Amino acid sequence: MMKSFMRILAYGKPYSRYWPSYLVLSVFSVFFGIANYALVAPLLTVLFQADTLPGEMARPVFSLSIPYFVDLFRYYMVMIKAKDGILMALVYVSVSLLVASFLANLTYYLSQRILVDMRANLMKNIRNDLFSKISRLHIGYFHDQRKGDLLSTVSNDVNEVQNSVAGSFHIIFRDPLLIAGFLSMLFYMSPKLTLASLLTLPLSALLIGRITRSLRSGAEVSQSLLGKLLSHFEEAISGSRIVKAFNAQGYILDRFDGVNDQHRMATRRLYNRQELASPLGEFLGISVAAAVLFYGGWLQVRGDLGMTWPEFVVYIGFYWRVLEPAKSITRTYAVIRKGMVSALRIFSILDAPVEIRKDQDAMPVKTFSERIEYRNVSFRYKETDPYVLRDINLVIPKGKVIALVGPSGAGKTTLADMLPRFYDVTEGSVLLDGIDIRKYRPRDLIGLMGIVTQESILFNDTVANNITFGLVNISRPEVEHAARVANAHDFIMELEHGYETNIGDRGEKLSGGQRQRLAIARAVFKNPPILILDEATSALDSESERMVQEALTKLMKNRTSVVIAHRLSTVRDADEIVVIDKGRITERGTHSRLLEQNGMYRHLYDLQAFG
Prior knowledge:
By secondary structure, this protein is of the alpha/beta class. It has helices spanning 2-10, 19-38, 40-48, 66-84, 86-136, 139-143, 147-165, 169-189, 191-198, 201-238, 240-245, 249-302, 309-350, 412-417, 442-447, 463-467, 476-485, 489-493, 512-526, 542-556, 591-597, 600-610; strands spanning 371-379, 389-397, 401-405, 427-432, 435-436, 449-453, 530-534, 560-564, 576-581, 584-589.
């Protein structure tokens, strides 16, 4: 736990920006807080004990010690009381208390402002790291994770860390100073009584510690169930059409209600334990204070305490001030135990291995001049999984169109995903111009490629920003040229605000064909030498398919293209058609030659021709 806590704290670096000024202000806050209580003893002594004549009391000799300041205050109290009366003495004490209280609270407020600044920067750095890591993780990572868990981590877990861990810094760092300051006063006033009272504290810590340890397991269950809840919400939103089409509202509601009820019970148990820590700490604190009061009173009656009654009253006040931060630390420890569960979930993402690693001596690559080659490539997602691809050998010359066809699940998309290094090969190598692509800079490698998938991935932004995705300061003529090539300009101009129209989440304001043409326009704008087209027309109606296919034909002109298709009619003009079945290349050749072989390709072609 301490290691994870220090890791969270490290996000607040550089410490030199915060801690020196925070510690100085905290020390002053504690000093003035002690002064508030220290002033009570001379007040009670002067007001309720026999009058002391001015001549009977000499001004104390200066020394940097607690007795000097106490005696100095008492000296002025006696002088004012003798000269101006008891009311002026009360005014003197009241003003002194007000000044001490004001300075204590002012320095506390200023120290808190420093912590607020640190907390805000700390959480900003955590969110930046999370977003950066998620954007760099390989595609396979997201196949193994529930989207709800990821969303829960980047929202609820980050907030939990902010509210529990980062929000407790002032208690962790300031309250120990309070305890140290007031304990020093207690030992100064009565070492014997203070030592005896401290012997009872380990029992309190043991009882509260047992409660806080149970909070961690409860928080783990609660956060896991919260991730499931968010997954159900995400599925209900993204699949709303299917839910309504099948009248499945009751079914998904029952599923959600079951998980929601589990989360309710887990959360109830967790908060019951968490709430127990505070009243238990309060009761134990009162019990210890009562014991100290009785024991101190007994010593005072016997004459063994070594304090006057006014000083004993102040002692009890000091002791109570020790208990308050001690209880705060106890409560905070319970909250931090719960919050560290969220921190560990955050770290599980931050520590996830980046499968696609950049070579230390990675070379730049800006052009593609010869060919792409898959050499003895085999692949599986995990060591325990079966192979998805086996012994793939394929050469794609520059400027050629290569089509990958075969039944669903044959490995076509996985084979194409290796080219931009969405996955790395398990065995063998993929070469670009004779060099293993793992030796190139990943950013440069992906810069050579344009990708259009079956599901058009668009963003909740304007049409223009979706076309120029990732680029700035682009002229409008350049954007319109890309849209015209993609057969998208006409429908864009019919939108409410043309190129400045917001297309909604995932482009929901557009039709399927419009979304696909916008994705093609984005690829056109990038102007890459290599194209990967993954089922780019399979989900479209005939009219949309015709327009998209025209756009793709323009896009593929003079480019090296890898086309994945189920509709064989769209790839019959490819330079070479590669048939993949069960992870292996089973046939290859032109459309006419493959028909003559009467193999898998002919079977698929006949199914589509007569189906």
